[in-house]
Amino acid sequence: SKSTLGWASAALLWTYALGQSINGNLGDKYGGRRLMSLGAILSCGLNWIVSFGTSFASLTIPWAANGYAQSMGWAPGSRVLSNWWPHSERGKVYGAYVFAAGSASVLAFGTSTLILEFNLNWRWIFRLPVLLLLIGGAVYYVIVRDRPEDLGFPPLSDGNLNDSNEAPIPHENAAVSNESSWQRYRYVLSNPRFLIACLAIGFQSMARYGLLIWVPVHFLGEDWKNSDTKWMTLALPIGMALGAIINGWLSDRLFHSNRSRVIALFLFLAAVCSLAMYLLPHDHWLGVPMLLLTGFFAYGPQSAFWALCPDLLGRERAGTGTGVMNTFAYVFAGLGEPFIGWMIESQGRPGLVFGVVATACLVGAIISPLIRR
Predict the structure, then answer these.
(1) pLDDT tens across 343-359, in order?
(2) 2-144+187-371 — its CATH code?
(3) Would the pTM of this model clear 0.70, i.e. be above it?
(4) Torsion on CA atoms 208, 113, 284, 265, rounded to nearest 10
């Protein structure tokens, strides 16, 4: 049922949230290279286990474990990026990072659709695409290093920021580098502007996963094998990937690293586009371009959100901050999924997802300007 699908999705999102709160700090302590590669290997194996599931429990338990394995990637990887690029370049760099994540959604949607085209059953969706993840994890471990010093380069230095739009970055000396886990968490959770950003990304993530999980249900319907609209759903992740890289570039160049303004702008436009999707007939010709724009504006702000972590907290706390922020994001996303599933099942209208997405984006747009105030 739709409600069951919603709870299974929530299980992964909540274990991912739990893992983010742990693995971001581990990335600060031990480096992101090992954690990211290990997470990729574990996630590939757990997806294969899911593919053999025959009941709600045998599907949901390894799927939830997969959420934790997936959480070993984002925050530790963010710490690696903050070690290699300065403040003035982070919007662009995080834009490329989020673009890569969005491109992965394109791969996931595309390979899954191909599997259906070849008349393979749904279990192969959990077996074939994740082999790319296994290869990526191995290549990452071989090529990437945690910090410039590992290759003999001098450490990166941001210096002190004097831009009135930016919070001063704490002096990152040996004392900061040697902080205990408790000290890092306490510093991160006592920063009010960072906590406002966490609330804003919570609503943005509720919208993002509402789209990713329920748009295929809306367009494919019950007869998903024979649906003529299979490939329409690719417009969503393509728009998301493009939005991420454009948003990151805009936050650095046009908005001069003032992340909150570009976040608020994109979320407001996402609310407008999602409302348009709700009002459009199912087979209207504007559906595909409007779906692409909805993904573009709903996912784009992720680039600016992640750049806020080292901006507000300093590079040495970037992993912990990213983990805490992502915990908020996925707790909110996990709360939204059962609610959306219940609404669709009780009303029989999958298009209701666009109304929920529009509301979540509007709330995020209202909150975001408070980050810098």
Answers:
(1) 887 877 778 889 999 99
(2) 1.20.1250.20
(3) yes
(4) 20
